[in-house]
Amino acid sequence: MVAHQEKKTSEERKHKSTQNDTRTSQVQWGRAWEVDWFSLASILFLLMFAPLIVYYFVMSCDQYQCSLIDPLIDLLTGNKHLSDIWNKTPTLTYRAAGIYALWVTFQVFLYVFVPDFCHKFLPGYVGGVQEGAVTPAGVVNKYEINGLQAWIITHVLWFANAYYFHCFSPTIIFDNWIPLLWCANILGYAVSTFAMIKGYFFPSNAEDCKFTGNFFYDYMMGIEFNPRIGKWFDFKLFFNGRPGIVAWTLINLSYAAKQQELYGQVTNSMILVNVLQGIYVLDFFWNEAWYLKTIDICHDHFGWYLGWGDCVWLPYLYTLQGLYLVYHPVQLCTANAIGILMLGLIGYYIFRMTNHQKDLFRRTNGNCKIWGKKPEYIECSYMSVDGTKYYSKLMTSGFWGWARHFNYTGDLMGSLAYCLTCGFEHILPYFYIVYMTILLTHRCIRDEHRCFSKYGKDWKHYTAAVPYRLIPGIF
C-alpha cells in the first residue's frame, strides 16, 4: 500500500537515470534485464514442449481413455507410429473456427463496449473504472472492471439456450474440443507475436519495456509491461480473465452435459468439480479489482507466457478433471464426497481470507484490525524509474504472519480437492495438483526475488519476521 511519495532533487534524478541506464538492481522489479543459462534453457523447453504436453493430454483422452502410459507403450512397442496417432486427431474445422471467433469477439465486445453496472447494485462488489498499481516507470493505469458482468451475461445466455432456445447443444464445447484447440493455439501465438512486434515498434509506454537482447526470452516473457490498444483494451487484464476463465465454467458445464448425454446422469464427482471450480472462478471475477495488485499485473510483462498460456494452457489443462469424468464417470460415496467438499471449501476459505486480510490492510493503510488486533507491519521503500520514491507496508499479522504466501497454501488445498473427485485409477487428473505445486512454489521464489530487488534490505527484515513461505514450521 503506497502511503506517500516524494520527488527527488535534480541531482538525485540524474544519478537515478544513470543507474537505470546501467541497469543496476536497486530499482528493478518486473522481469529480468539479463538472461542466465538456466532461464534460457527453461524458456526453450517450455516453448518447444508446452504445446506438445497440452496435445498429449487431450489426445490421450480422445484416443486412449485418458491413459498417459498407453500411447507411450504403443509407440515404444511399434504397435503405432506417431503418424497413426496424428492421423486420428481431429483437424481444424470451419465450425470450430466460427465458434471460437464468435466467442472471442463476444468477450471483446463485453470487455470494451459494455461498462460495468454490477457495482451499482451488488453490495461489496468493486467494479467500474479502477486504478492499477504503480508500474516500474511510475505510471498508474486505469481499468474497466467488468469481468463479473461478462461472466453473468455469458452464463445467462448459455442457460437460456440450453433450456429455451436450443440454438446449439450444451455439449458443443466437448464435441469440438480438439478442433477448438487449434483455434486457441492460433490466437495464442498470434497475440504473443503481435505483442512482441508492438513492444518494438509502437509500445503503449516505452519506459515500461524491457529488452534482454535474447529473442526467445523476450518472446516468452514479454517486452511490454502493459500493452494496450486504445484507452481501455488492456492485453493482460483481458487475456488473463476473459477467453479462458469465463470459459472455464462453460467448459465444465459442457462436460456435465456430455456425461448426462452418455450415461443418463451427472455424477456427484462432476457436480463437485463444477461447484468447487465455479466458486474459484466467481471469486476471481468478484475480486477482479483486487487482481490488479497481484503478480500477474504488477510484475509480469505480456508475452507468450501469458498470451498463449491464457488461451491454451489454462482452458485445456485446468479443466482436465471434468474431461476425465466424461470418459470415466466416478460416483463417490457420501463420506468421500463430503470430505472432498470440505477440503475444497476450507482451502477456499484460507485462500480468500488471506487475500482479504491483505486487501483490507492495503485499503486502510494499516488502520484496521486483523483477528481483533491492530496489524503489525514492516515499512519499506522503493523507487520507480522516474525518480519517485514510494513507501509500502508489508503486513506480518494474521495469516500473513504464519507464512509469506499462505494464500497459495489454500489454493493448493482446493487444487487437490479437484483432483480427488476423480478417484485413483489414472494419474491424468492429478497433473493439476503437481503443476500447481510447481507453479506456486516457483512463483514464491520468483516473487521474493523481485521483492528483494524492489525493497532491498527492507525485504530481509520482512523475511526475518515471517520466515516461512507456504507451510508454517516446514517451508
Itemize the secondary structure elements and their pairings:
Blueprint: E1 5-7, H1 10-21, H2 37-64, H3 70-77, H4 82-88, H5 94-113, E2 128-134, E3 140-145, H6 147-165, H7 172-175, H8 177-201, H9 215-221, E4 228-229, E5 233-234, H10 235-263, H11 268-286, H12 288-291, H13 295-298, H14 304-317, H15 320-327, H16 334-363, E6 377-383, E7 388-395, H17 399-402, H18 406-420, H19 431-455, H20 457-465
Antiparallel strand pairs: 1-7, 2-3, 4-5, 6-7
Helix pairs in contact: 2-14, 5-8, 6-10, 8-14, 10-11, 10-14, 10-15, 11-16, 16-18, 18-19, 19-20
Helix content: 55-70%
Percent strand equals 5-15%
Mean pLDDT, all residues:
89
Report the C-alpha radius of gyration, rounded.
Answer: 23 Å
Write a brief caption for the model.
It contains 20 helices and seven strands. By secondary structure, it is mainly alpha-helical. The protein is globular, with a radius of gyration of 23 Å.
